[in-house]
Structure prediction request, 170 residues.
Amino acid sequence: MSDRVALVWDDAFEAYDFGPQHPLKPIRVVLTVALVRACGLDALPNVSAVIPRSATRAELETIHDPAYIDAVERISGEVGDPYGNYGWGIGTGDDPAFAGMHDASARVAGASITAADAVWSNTVEHAFNPAGGLHHAMADHASGFCIYNDPAIAIRWLLDHGAAAPRVRR
Prediction:
């Protein structure tokens, strides 16, 4: 068992919500954390709760094109039809638009950076971001239920902060 573990969690993760008909529902992360709590895992002396931050614009730009980020921000504030023709891979069956999409996605990316930072700084041995893993997003478009690619952003953060092979590969 690990000596130090971080559970990276914020109730704001529920905002990453493509709508009631979409198969990727926010309840998945809510129930995951509820199970962790019901089993008492979060109350173990070696487990700490960590509230994540949002990824900054500069951190998002390490992986995503600025024009794409601009589009996500703009679409987030003007959603009418979730399946409208927004471009950028947004408005599709996989990635319908939703209000607050940029903020919710930047929060998930920031949580993965928070987890990476906690491990990299040796604050913990392991960190768990139950909302993370949105790895299908491309540099210039949404794909596969993913708006921003939080694992790639966290890996870039690690590389920028001195991690190198064999622990992290480009």
